[in-house]
Amino acid sequence: MRILNAHEIDIASEAIKKGELVAFPTETVYGLGGDALNISAIQKIFEVKGRPIDNPLIVHINSLDMLEHVAYITEDAELLIERFWPGPLTLILKKKDIVPGITCANLDTIAVRMPNHDIALKLIKKAGVPIAAPSANLSGKPSPTSISHVMEDLNDKINYAIDGKVNIGVESTVVDLTEEKPLILRHGGITFEELKEIVDIEIFTTRDMKKVKSPGMKYRHYAPNTPLVLATGKLNDMVFKINKLIEEYNKIGENVGIIATHETIHRYPNNIKKRSIGTRDNLYQVSKNLFNILREMDKENLDVIIIESFEKKGLGFAIMERLEKASVSMI
């Protein structure tokens, strides 16, 4: 894999035009990009990631003209675009015939967004095509928030990656605009509370699922190789449960790692591997650190990782959605 800098986007855009794949930074996580209208390129994305073919891809665009080229725009879409684009918001819209079925899991809908990242926008503009880009990792693993994460997973699988910064650390929020009422299918960088100010919107539940219109709905995601246990409950009860579980694992000689917060890290034994993910007063910091800490703890030769939970409010929805997907059990 050749690592490109921000001044070498022309090399990356030419690769996209030729049907090759390029990893690139967005404001959320790193994406693995290919021409969204090129069936061969899309097939490569699924092959490289080991991604199930029925898991639709998010198509990245850089202009409203490009959006109109691939999707039918609704009134609610116009309202949300005006407020949140470019930014970490993906919209599910009815797709146009120019988009191959494989890009959208053979549905009549398309997941599309305009990233808020100079490198991503320049790459799309120079390539001259919408770019389909799931996270640039092996399917199911923690999403990549640095070029080193991309190299860990895809170093021998693609030819190019562009180095750059990621700001948010969790993926985009996905909103379905093809049903009677707007519906959040995946929580992310734009919160439910922010969306509610613009449109009358509801949160998806599993009972609503008829078709998998968005990534992150069906399969286990974001998971380290080491089993992850998610501790729930009020703060003091959660700390108590974690310490009891640590005692139980110690009795059988298993190595435990703890991912806690600044407020609680001191309440766990010093003879185990423990890391703070940030402060509960700043969930943006927590979200930015999440995938990096999961990857770092996964290298510590542990038998189990226990992580604290967060209130499902604001960005906490997005954090918890990922932890629930990544964990093998909850206590």
TrEMBL record:
<feature type="binding site">
    <location>
        <position position="222"/>
    </location>
    <ligand>
        <name>ATP</name>
    </ligand>
</feature>
<dbReference type="InterPro" id="IPR005145">
    <property type="entry name" value="Sua5_C"/>
</dbReference>
<feature type="domain" description="YrdC-like">
    <location>
        <begin position="6"/>
        <end position="190"/>
    </location>
</feature>
<dbReference type="GO" id="GO:0000049">
    <property type="term" value="F:tRNA binding"/>
</dbReference>
<keyword id="KW-0067">ATP-binding</keyword>
<dbReference type="GO" id="GO:0006450">
    <property type="term" value="P:regulation of translational fidelity"/>
</dbReference>
<feature type="binding site">
    <location>
        <position position="51"/>
    </location>
    <ligand>
        <name>ATP</name>
    </ligand>
</feature>
<feature type="binding site">
    <location>
        <position position="60"/>
    </location>
    <ligand>
        <name>L-threonine</name>
    </ligand>
</feature>
<dbReference type="Pfam" id="PF01300">
    <property type="entry name" value="Sua5_yciO_yrdC"/>
</dbReference>
<dbReference type="GO" id="GO:0008033">
    <property type="term" value="P:tRNA processing"/>
</dbReference>
<keyword id="KW-0808">Transferase</keyword>
<dbReference type="InterPro" id="IPR050156">
    <property type="entry name" value="TC-AMP_synthase_SUA5"/>
</dbReference>
<keyword id="KW-0547">Nucleotide-binding</keyword>
<dbReference type="InterPro" id="IPR038385">
    <property type="entry name" value="Sua5/YwlC_C"/>
</dbReference>
<feature type="binding site">
    <location>
        <position position="133"/>
    </location>
    <ligand>
        <name>L-threonine</name>
    </ligand>
</feature>
<feature type="binding site">
    <location>
        <position position="109"/>
    </location>
    <ligand>
        <name>ATP</name>
    </ligand>
</feature>
<keyword id="KW-0963">Cytoplasm</keyword>
<dbReference type="GO" id="GO:0061710">
    <property type="term" value="F:L-threonylcarbamoyladenylate synthase"/>
</dbReference>
<keyword id="KW-0548">Nucleotidyltransferase</keyword>
<feature type="binding site">
    <location>
        <position position="135"/>
    </location>
    <ligand>
        <name>ATP</name>
    </ligand>
</feature>
<comment type="function">
    <text>Required for the formation of a threonylcarbamoyl group on adenosine at position 37 (t(6)A37) in tRNAs that read codons beginning with adenine.</text>
</comment>
<protein>
    <recommendedName>
        <fullName>Threonylcarbamoyl-AMP synthase</fullName>
        <ecNumber>2.7.7.87</ecNumber>
    </recommendedName>
</protein>
<dbReference type="Pfam" id="PF03481">
    <property type="entry name" value="Sua5_C"/>
</dbReference>
<dbReference type="GO" id="GO:0005737">
    <property type="term" value="C:cytoplasm"/>
</dbReference>
<keyword id="KW-0819">tRNA processing</keyword>
<feature type="binding site">
    <location>
        <position position="186"/>
    </location>
    <ligand>
        <name>ATP</name>
    </ligand>
</feature>
<feature type="binding site">
    <location>
        <position position="28"/>
    </location>
    <ligand>
        <name>L-threonine</name>
    </ligand>
</feature>
<feature type="binding site">
    <location>
        <position position="143"/>
    </location>
    <ligand>
        <name>ATP</name>
    </ligand>
</feature>
<comment type="similarity">
    <text>Belongs to the SUA5 family.</text>
</comment>
<feature type="binding site">
    <location>
        <position position="172"/>
    </location>
    <ligand>
        <name>L-threonine</name>
    </ligand>
</feature>
<dbReference type="GO" id="GO:0005524">
    <property type="term" value="F:ATP binding"/>
</dbReference>
<dbReference type="InterPro" id="IPR006070">
    <property type="entry name" value="Sua5-like_dom"/>
</dbReference>
<dbReference type="InterPro" id="IPR010923">
    <property type="entry name" value="T(6)A37_SUA5"/>
</dbReference>
<dbReference type="GO" id="GO:0003725">
    <property type="term" value="F:double-stranded RNA binding"/>
</dbReference>
<dbReference type="InterPro" id="IPR017945">
    <property type="entry name" value="DHBP_synth_RibB-like_a/b_dom"/>
</dbReference>
<feature type="binding site">
    <location>
        <position position="55"/>
    </location>
    <ligand>
        <name>ATP</name>
    </ligand>
</feature>
<feature type="binding site">
    <location>
        <position position="113"/>
    </location>
    <ligand>
        <name>L-threonine</name>
    </ligand>
</feature>
